[in-house]
Amino acid sequence: MTLLDYKYADTIHRCFRCGYCKFPVNWMDVNNCPAYARFRMETYSCGGRLWLIRAWLSGEIDWSNHLAEILYSCTACKNCEVKCPLRFNVDILNMIIAAKSEMVESGRIPSSVKEFLENIQRQGNPYGHSRVKRGEWMEGTEIEPYQGHDLLYYVGCVGSYDDRAQEVARMLGKVLQKARVSFGVLGNDENCDGNEVSKLGEETLFEMLVEENVAQFKKLGIQKVVTLSPHSYNAMKNDYPRFNGSFDVMHYTQLLKSLISDGRLDVSAGFDAVVTYHDPCFLGRWNNEYEAARNVITAIPGIQLIEMERNRDSTLCCGGGGGNFYIDLLGGSERSPARIRAREAHAIGARILAVACPNCLTMFEDAVKAEGLEEELVVRDVSEIVAEACGIM
Amino acid sequence: MDSIRQALAEIVGEEHVSTHPEELYIYSFDLGTTEPHRPDYAVSPRTTEEVQGIVKLANKEKIPVVPLGGGLSLAGIAVPFKGGICLDLKRMDSIIEVNEKARYAVVECGVSQARMCSYLEKHHPSLTHSEPGAPGSATVGGNIAIHGQGDLAQPYGFNSDMVNGLEVVLPTGEVCRFGSCAIGASWFTLHPLPDLGLFLGWGGTTGIITKISLRLFPRKRIRGVGLFVVEDEELVPEIMYKLTQTQMAEDIIAFSQAIPPLVSGVQHFTINLAADSEKELEFKQEIIWDDTLGEYIRSGAGGFLGFSRGLDRPAVSKTSDWRKGGGFEYVGSIMPIEKYPECYRRGREISERHGIPYTVLGRCIGIAHAMMFSWTYAFNRADAETVKQAREALHETDDLVLELGGTIWKPGLYGQKLVIERLDPNTLNLMKKVKQLLDPNGIMNPGNWEVSQ
């Protein structure tokens, strides 16, 4: 491909590399781009990436595995788009994803990305675990397969396969049962939502996944979906309609907020702790939902909610987006975004780091251990906090 | 493996040194029109000791070292013209101390301007520093190394006049301190020790500034910007003099630009006011708008367009998108204020001759002791012809600055040559001696300020 063929050939040179993209909205530091925070080389900033893409497409530099890793270290957290003051900012991430697509097309991608995509193609999940084990997370629960229920509870890949996230998936199921919500799950028939596939630039696989999911949802008569993961929520809310898949999609924190305010969930058992909440990128910056989880948390007696300095649209991504919870191009350092974030939560005196995303959950669980903070900071999903406040745990 | 690379990795850690084509490509560029030159190594140190280790190695091996802050000078000052080590100093970003009573902050050189602002706003809300007009990613160290100015220039002058102390790694590897910190006292004053004056304004050619004590100033509770316009550029100098006579403003800028066309040719003033109470603000507003500028308003020569509370962070990078081209560069000058009309007219002519929408700006420095007057030329990074036009316009403007009796602020290579040609021979000779003494192997940012040639 040449620059002429590149979809954003008329735009990509417009990045001046002023560096605004590195900052949070409140300007407090230059390390709000997770990859830049990790490596602190200009190449890993958003502007650096855009300049490198242009140089690659124009032949000034050649493809290399290092170039691919620089691109794939982008977590698609959208901090750059929120902060860039220029008019083309809405396309910044698309410029990076389009370059990733070119790498996918030509098969020149990091081995971990290749493995991630192949696993999804073969087994419908990035871990490469068997499709027929996808529903094992619900063993021992009374969660029902979807059969015309009011709601489909879509669990997603991380909630289905990761041990810790499975606990959260089960707990949310119990909470929904406690509220007498009519819901069912797809179990082994659930497939990857495709959000990360899209952000990794594998358009063909993404389209295939979405078309399969949309067809399945329609066949089962599904109209309403509640997702465990903000990543699933984002894909189903914003991408599926392009494939004739318009469903009433909500993230579980939005549902819990309604259930509490409607009186269907009694959280009066309370939860006695100092809690800080980490905004997931695909709920916050991608979908402008900052308050639902906070409303849930503050509705629970006993909780003292304190904010990290970087919150809402200034949040530092956990570093797990864009497939990085698996491909792990940002790990292995005290400067890994999740470890920075864990230290921030600890520094403000929080005892609980509350999350609303299974990717964030797994990233922070590892980060807290790596920081040696297990005795002082506990990572809990909002659904687990609600479960305790409902007397389930 | 390259032994130099290996040695650098041993100093800063493997992750903070690169010889990958990607890093060498990115660090070859300035954001303006200067032609890129690739370094051989990109290195990102965290501590003074690491900088010291790198410089000792470079001096021993006679490898150029180019210190880089935010990389926003736009004049090519941090382009590695002769290869070597590009030293990205932005990891050195600790705010070490803020002394509220003596009103100073000791910071590492790579602290960004925006972080400095937000840190003070949060932790020391009664204090502020002079924030430059550059994007917030510009660094404190980079700014003083080029004699930058900021939004307190009118009462307090250049940012490099606000330095209370420095820590510098010399080109031969010694770490030196200047000011009261040099005798083990706190970093509260640069004076009255003998003035060495060897690093400010040298653009990293005499050493690497690693720590700075920067003066802070009272931050008043209410800050805002008033907008005033006149059509006649001849009125700008006298208005600036009158405004500075009041000593009421924190920042006074006059500017004019071709975009949007409706206001092309109009001279705009932004006048920053600050107050601790509504009463103080009202008093200052009355002095400025009624007593000082009232005569222009009443005669119809000028107009008051309102006062808005709050200061926006500089958004200068928007200029880069005027031609949807991602690029601009400007010539900055330090100029007598009386020259504003001619600067405006001649600059506008240069812009129009090169088909570039004109943008000029004069920021008052001191009590009208001078102004930083800039001529900005936007270009399309994807169109080599517009880059060439901008470069030609910049060179013509460098010539113009000296013709009008000003000095070029942070000149690029072309401007440096013009300045060196005009330097008093004895001054030039002293600069040569200083450079030779400090940097006997010529490793520091070679290409820039080549006074020895």
Task: Describe the model.
The complex is a heterodimer of chains A (about 400) and B (about 450). Chain A has helices at about 35-40, 45-55, 65-70, 80-85, 90-105, 110-125, 155-160, 165-180, 195-200, 205-220, 230-240, 250-260, 290-300, 325, 335-345, 360-370, 380-390, and strands spanning about 150-155, 185, 225, 250, 275, 305, 350-355, 380. Chain A has about 400 residues and is an alpha/beta fold. Chain A folds into three domains: about 10-110, no CATH class; about 130-260, 3-Layer(aba) Sandwich (Rossmann fold); about 265-390, 3-Layer(aba) Sandwich (Rossmann fold). In chain A, the strands form two sheets. In chain A, strands 2-1-3-4 form a four-stranded parallel sheet. In chain A, strand 3 (about 225), helix 11 and strand 4 form a beta-alpha-beta unit. Chain B is an alpha+beta fold and about 450 residues long. Chain B has four domains: about 5-90, Uridine Diphospho-n-acetylenolpyruvylglucosamine Reductase, domain 2 (2-Layer Sandwich); about 95-220, Uridine Diphospho-n-acetylenolpyruvylglucosamine Reductase, domain 3, CATH 3.30.465; about 220-310, Alpha-Beta Plaits (2-Layer Sandwich); about 320-420, 3-Layer(aba) Sandwich (Vanillyl-alcohol Oxidase, Chain A, domain 3). In chain B, about 30% of the residues lie in helices and about 25% in strands. Chain B contains 13 helices and 19 strands. Chain B has an eight-stranded antiparallel sheet. Chain B has a five-stranded antiparallel sheet with strand order 5-6-10-8-9. In chain B, strand 17 (about 360-365) and strand 18 (about 370-380) form a beta hairpin. The mean pLDDT of chain B is about 95. The interface of A and B includes residues 18, 30 and 88 of A.
